[in-house]
Amino acid sequence: MANHSVRLSEARTEDIPAIAKLANTIWHQHYTSIIGTDQINYMLEMMYSYDSLTEQMTQKGHTFYLIHENDTCIGFIAISKTENATHSYYIHKYYLLQELAGKGTGTAAFIELLKLLNPEELRLTVNRQNYKSINFYFKNGFKIEQVADFDIGNGYVMNDFVMVWRKN
Question: Are 53 and 23 in contact (CB under 8 A)?
């Protein structure tokens, strides 16, 4: 693995345009073959509009971290604490520019997240057809906890795995 100078910085509402731009790039690079352009555009509008991201940051308790490699912002992670659990978190978003996939950058960012949170447990959902991401999560110690389908409106359903990581 190459030497990665990856760092996380907590995002603020001023970073919303950068997050939305990264999401648009990453989703079109990665998800077109999995869910198609129409569903991508629907989900980007639903989850990455300025109003939606503002609500996630200010009202829903989501903390966003920008992923930086050297001086370039290359992705983002969004987490929230799990209710009634001190060291348990839910990862809502974990996205990295596709040209960096498979180079150890995502793992370096995950290690930084672990240092920052010191979690006992992390949970997330991932599309069941998203093999690259599923394998990334397996490699980093996640296990499939359950299969779940989520109706997200407009005739679209997310067919996901719920994955969990637990501290050893």
Answer: no
Which CATH class, in words, describes the domain spanning 6-166?
Answer: alpha beta
Report d(CA 132, CA 36) in Å as an integer: 17
d(CA 113, CA 144): 20
What 3-state DSSP class applies to 141? coil
- Among 37, 43, 22, CA closest to 158: 43
Do 43 and 27 meet the contact criterion of CB atoms below 8 Å apart?
Answer: yes
Report pLDDT digits (tens) over 106-156.
999 999 999 999 999 999 999 999 999 999 999 999 999 999 999 999 898
Taking the model in full, what pTM does it have?
0.92
Alpha carbons 120 and 67: distance in angstroms, whole number: 22
Looking at residues 7-16, what average pLDDT do you find?
96
The DSSP letter of residue 155 is: T
Burial (CB < 10 A; 0-12, 13-18, 19+), residue 103, is middle
Q: Is 81 exposed, middle or buried (0-12, 13-18, 19+ CB in 10 A)?
A: middle
